[in-house]
Each structure stands twice: as structure tokens, then as C-alpha cells.
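[SOLVED] Predicted holo structure with zinc ion

Edit: marking solved, answer below. Original request kept for reference. I posted the sequence and ligand SMILES and asked for the 3D complex as C-alpha cells.
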Amino acid sequence: MYICVGCRKEMLCDKNGVGANFGHGHVYASDRYKCPICGMMILATNIKAYYDPNLSFQDEYLNMDGGGNENRRQLGEEILTSKARRGGSRQGKAWT
Ligand SMILES: [Zn+2]
């Protein structure tokens, strides 16, 4: 369970299949959670990254190299990179 500290409410899963993209194929698969009161969003990632150089396994990707303010803007304005699911496995091989 994830709890919004400010609102003291449980955050709810807002979207599955969001990749936290650190570049060069270095991606953490995650689910996105959102506070139902204030709208704060977080990504709950897997512990291990996987290799996804073409950004083809997740529905959306959040680029992690843009800095905090830019990432917040991306979430608010839905500039997330959307990728249609191309079938097959959603999980690439482990990042090594
Ligand atoms: Zn909140």
C-alpha cells in the first residue's frame, strides 16, 4: 500500500505498464499510483531494471533525465511517451 503523506489517503493504481526510462535501454517497469485527493502520482517500480532499447515493452515511458520540474510537467500535461503494445512478452531480459 502507498499512502499520500499530505492527505493521509491510500494512493490507488492509476496505470499499469509505465517504464521509468533512464536511457540507453535502462528501464524499470512500474505501475503508476495516484492520490485520489491531491492527484500526486508516483511510480512503483520493479527492483531490477531490464533492457528495453526500443521502448517497446511498456504502454508509456517516463523519461528520467529531464529533471524534477520537467517530469512533473510531463505527468500533468501527458507528454509521456505513449507506445502501443506490440504483443509478445512485456518483459525484456534483465539489465546487467
Ligand atoms: Zn494527496
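OP edit: Residues 4, 6-7, 9, 35, 37-38, 40 surround zinc ion (CB under 6 Å). Thanks to everyone who chimed in.
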